[in-house]
Write a structure and sequence with these properties.
The chain is mostly helical and 504 residues long. The protein has 23 helices and 4 strands. Strands 1-2 form a two-stranded antiparallel ribbon. Strands 3-4 form a two-stranded antiparallel ribbon. The termini are far apart. The model has no long low-confidence stretch (mean pLDDT 85).
Length: 504
């Protein structure tokens, strides 16, 4: 019965895919691109409705596209053609007939698995294992406790400690849910519990303050680094494919640094002014001491991990100078951590989150690349741009960014939101002549920051919201308030910073 209900949950996605695939082909698209668009729409629907893992939905999508020959194949002489045209004949310029020499099914499958050699997918995969090392050694927990102890002399100070903990861990743990839910959340809940507040007590100013600060800090820190959230590499990949710009680790951080760090600095005071929490600091100090004692002294594995992480940061930031790709740096880090016995090969094998994310991210990259190759992204971008055709490039950029931000209301997954909309919005910006780097950094920031709008936007937010310290209606209201602050800072300080950088 359970299996039947799971299949029923997938029916809306199947119906959407079939209907769109068989709609009349509009100008600018082909039958092949319509099938790809239909399957992609089915994937987005499946992510919202189907009771299957994201990777399963994508595996089915790739198989369907392979069997229907709905990719762009490469012929033996290097031509790019739609796979369903393989082995068909065409008349050359000389008038002679030739055959497109390629394998429609085999070539389609080659495209389907091409994402697994993508460097971005490998960067996220390796970063997950670095995150496992941070968790295994207890380093992440030690950092969080140390920050709370050092900054926890006031309620706002505790909020800043949580923000700094997220900030320190964000470059190394590319799952905002794993970082927020697996490392920072237990610390936050321990602090709340130590002060005599329990979830069953319902709404509570202190619990609400720490939950909102932690969940929003998780989103803001995710926007700072390309490795801060699993969907970020998709943004970078689409920026590169549509605008031809390199939006790597250093450039992403440079562009995001000023507005995102300012918002992190503003977050605790704003939430404190709104919720007015009170803290028993004597009790808090006892709880921190108890948890710190349970960790014991700093182990050799933590020193090895810190040295490796420091080297990673230096090489990542200095990529233009050292000439070592960010993915290669992360790959080397994993091997070093294994060789110095911080991680074992069993840790790599059993890190199912890393493997799962690697699969669905690689699959999404294939879909994104093929949507561009078959003209779907450009067609959607043209459609979006028609409503802004009279606006200036800057006005168009800001309008697209605001629309992208509030479209998050339609999704319960940041990654799904990125996959569904970042390509079309970039394509619209390309048609409208938007400054490439300005639009790229705005969508990069808003991909994570838009998660403040709802209590179900991503796993880490849902974990905090489920504790009940803040009612859902109030969470939505605070989300709108925070969104206004985010947009205000981004469109003032952010625009000034990007103007200084020469990005528009």
């Amino acid at each position: 019965m359970a299996r039947e209900s799971r299949f029923v949950s997938a029916l809306p996605a199947i119906v959407v895919a079939i209907i769109i695939s068989h709609l009349p082909v509009p100008d600018g698209l082909t039958y092949t691109s319509m099938r790809l668009l239909g399957v992609f729409a089915g994937v987005v629907t499946g992510l919202l409705t189907a009771d299957y893992a994201m990777s399963v939905v994508l595996a089915v999508a790739l198989l369907a596209l392979t069997l229907t020959e709905s990719f762009m194949c490469t012929t033996s002489d290097g031509r790019q053609i739609e796979c369903d045209r393989c082995r068909t004949v065409y008349r050359g310029k000389s008038g002679k007939w030739h055959e497109y020499k390629c394998d429609p099914i085999g070539g389609s499958f080659d495209v389907a698995i091409s994402g697994f050699s993508n460097r971005v997918a490998w960067l996220v995969f390796t970063a997950f294992h670095i995150g496992r090392a941070v968790e295994k050694t207890g380093f992440g927990r030690r950092v969080s406790l140390t920050l709370v102890r050092a900054m926890g002399r006031s309620t706002v100070g505790i909020g800043y400690a949580i923000c700094v903990a997220e900030l320190v861990l964000a470059p190394f743990i590319p799952s905002n849910t794993a970082r927020g839910g697996g490392i920072v959340y237990p610390i936050v809940e321990s602090v709340i519990a130590s002060l005599g507040v329990e979830p069953q007590m319902g709404e509570n100013a202190l619990g609400g303050f720490l939950s909102l600060v932690a969940s929003h800090a998780n989103l803001l820190s995710s926007s700072l680094f390309i490795t801060g959230m699993a969907g970020n590499p998709i943004v970078a990949s689409k920026a590169a494919s549509i605008f031809g710009i390199d939006f790597g680790f250093a450039e992403w951080f440079l562009g995001a640094s000023v507005p995102a760090l300012l918002l992190l600095f503003m977050l605790p005071p704003i939430m404190h002014a709104y919720l007015r929490p009170r803290v028993d600091f004597a009790r808090l100090e006892q709880e921190i001491h108890r948890q710190s004692a349970s960790l014991g002294p700093v182990a050799a594995a933590e020193y090895k991990l810190c040295a490796t992480l420091l080297c990673c940061l230096v090489l990542w930031v200095g990529t233009p100078y050292f000439g070592v790709d960010a993915t290669v740096v992360a790959y080397m880090a994993i091997l070093v951590l294994i060789l110095v016995d911080v991680l074992t090969w069993e840790d790599i094998v059993k890190n199912h989150k890393a493997w799962d994310t690697f699969f669905w991210l690689a699959s999404f990259i294939v879909l994104a690349e093929q949507l561009s190759a078959l003209g779907v992204t450009g067609w959607i971008g043209d459609s979006l741009s028609r409503s802004l055709h009279n606006a200036s490039p800057l006005s168009s950029t800001l309008s697209l960014a605001v629309a992208y931000f509030f479209s998050m209301y339609l999704f319960s997954s940041i990654s799904s939101h990125v996959v569904a909309f970042v390509g079309p919005f970039f394509a619209a910006g390309h048609v409208l002549g938007c400054p490439p780097r300005l639009l790229a950094i705005l969508l990069a920031l808003f991909s994570s920051m838009a998660g403040v709008l709802t209590p179900f936007s991503t796993g880490s937010v849902a974990i905090y919201a489920a504790q009940g310290y803040v009612s859902q209606p109030r969470w939505f209201m605070i989300g709108v308030m925070t969104a206004v602050v985010i947009l205000g800072v981004t469109f003032s300080v952010g625009l000034l910073w990007w103007k200084l950088l020469g990005w528009y």
